[in-house]
Design brief:
By secondary structure, this protein is mainly α. Helices cover about 75% and strands about 0% of the residues. The protein has a domain at about 45-155: Four Helix Bundle (Hemerythrin (Met), subunit A) (Up-down Bundle), CATH 1.20.120.1490. It has helices at about 1-20, 50-70, 70-85, 90-120, 125-155. Helix 1 crosses helix 4 and helix 2 runs antiparallel to helix 4 (about 90-120). The longest helix is centred in the C-terminal third of the chain and has 32 residues, at about 90-120.
Length: about 160
């Protein structure tokens, strides 16, 4: 039981320290579409109509994220109260971990829905180009992870 509580506490702490859980990433100077992830669409030679439709989709998505965004201060206060209490309230800890998990689940589902809507706007050539770009990125990430693993092992 202690292992489960410790794991949950560690996961919650990790969620809070990453900063990405509640980050509002709508203001980026170098991104046409307002979100860094969607920079890849700049490489697809989108038509003006496609760009406008994608911008509309992303604005709708941002509105939904803001509406669903949990109160960060309240979440942090609950976290700090749990950490600083003399006796760990496992029920409160599980409730807090569940809130964090639900938040990430909603964000994940929203992201997939957004990507799907955008995918439907692309021509078959653009879809192929996007798949090739993503495969190239995955290969690059894989090489990087292998390099990190070798470094960890001291090879």
């Amino acid at each position: 039981m202690k292992k489960k509580v410790l794991t949950t506490l560690l996961a919650t702490t990790l969620l809070l320290t990453t900063g990405s859980a509640f980050a509002d990433k709508t203001e980026h100077k170098n991104s046409v579409f307002g979100q860094p992830y969607f920079k890849i669409y700049k490489k697809l030679d989108l038509s003006k109509d496609q760009k406008q439709q994608i911008k509309t989709i992303l604005k709708e998505t941002r509105k939904q994220h803001k509406a669903e965004k949990p109160n960060k201060k309240q979440f942090l206060n609950e976290h700090h109260q749990l950490v600083q209490s003399k006796i760990l309230d496992e029920v409160a800890l599980n409730n807090l971990a569940e809130k964090a998990a639900n938040h990430f689940k909603k964000r994940f589902i929203g992201r997939v829905k957004t990507e799907h809507k955008i995918w439907q706007l692309l021509t078959p050539e653009q879809q192929q180009k996007l798949m090739e770009y993503k495969a190239k990125r995955m290969e690059k990430r894989q090489k990087h992870m292998e390099k990190r693993e070798k470094h960890k092992k001291g090879e």
